[in-house]
Design a protein that fits this description.
D-Maltodextrin-Binding Protein, domain 2, five-stranded mixed β-sheet, 8 helices, alpha/beta, three-stranded parallel β-sheet, about 280 residues, about 25% strand, 2 domains
């Protein structure tokens, strides 16, 4: 085992699946230590979390910066491996990769296969065309309206749950889309009245298209984004947890959040399997 000294600021119980975290020596799995790298899966199509810079075609984004910072804390190289979203969980279960760091939401339904080191809070957020903002002064205005979101996410179920709770006899009319970009296209075309996507993405999108969109209200469900690691890889989970907490403690995490306009999504400490 490779022993590394990493300062850890987090001590305490995080529920049944919590890991004990103490300052001191941590161990990476022997195979990873010998290889000198951690194989990390990603899909670089989710700015500002991960994407290819249009000018240079290089990997960019908050997750890329965070992953490289984790690698430096652990004294090991991050070996990024592009894949498809559908292959995330199979790649973990078959050992093709050691971890997933790609704006991946921590859901309880995924805990049988992966343990999540949560490093960011998020939540589905309504937004509209800025030209129609006066029509949507509060979230109640979405009742009875056409709302679009990616059908590949949990957002459809969350929108329906919010609608059932908030709209009574005039529910939201949900429209499934082929991803968040398609939802924004349909919004601009007037085919839907509003769209929903993770609130971590909205500041970036609004910078890309100034004056196009306006967020309304607050996220409709609390969620967490985490680093997914195979359930059996306890040593790697511990290493990742302590590395993230060390980055929080030394201010690096705060700097990266500010760089990518994610300060509102900050966690005070990394958590384990906090997703529902």
């Amino acid at each position: 085992m490779k022993r590394l000294l990493v300062a850890a600021a987090f001590v305490g119980a995080m529920g049944a699946s919590a890991l004990s975290v103490q300052a001191g020596a941590i161990e990476l799995p022997a195979e990873i230590a010998k290889r000198g790298s951690i194989k990390v899966a990603l899909v670089p199509n989710y700015p500002p979390m991960e994407f290819r810079d249009p000018a240079t075609n290089t990997l960019s984004g908050f997750d890329i910066d965070l992953g490289e910072a984790i690698g430096r804390k652990l004294g090991i190289k991050i070996e990024w491996q592009e894949t498809s979203f559908d292959q995330f969980m199979p790649s973990i279960s078959t050992g093709r990769v050691d971890a997933i760091l790609s704006g991946f939401t921590d859901y309880a339904s995924r805990h049988e296969t992966a343990t999540f080191i949560d490093y960011l809070r998020t939540g589905p957020h309504f937004f509209v065309q800025q030209s129609r903002a006066a029509e949507f002064k509060d979230m109640a205005a979405f009742c009875g309206k056409k709302v679009g979101a990616s059908r590949r996410t949990m957002f459809p179920a969350m929108i329906n749950a919010w609608s059932e709770k908030s709209c009574g006899s005039t529910p939201v009319v949900f429209v499934g889309t082929d991803g968040s970009a398609d939802a924004r296209t349909q919004l601009k075309q007037g085919r839907i009245d509003a769209a929903v996507q993770g609130n971590e993405t909205l500041p970036y999108i609004m910078d890309l298209e100034p004056g196009a969109y306006t967020p309304v209200g607050t996220p409709i469900a609390p969620q967490f984004i985490g680093i997914a690691i195979p359930v059996k890889e306890k040593a790697l989970q511990q290493a990742m947890l302590e590395a993230v907490d060390a980055l929080i403690a030394d201010g690096s995490y705060k700097t990266l959040l500010a760089k990518w306009k994610l300060t509102d999504n900050a966690l005070e400490k990394a958590t384990i399997n906090a997703g529902q």
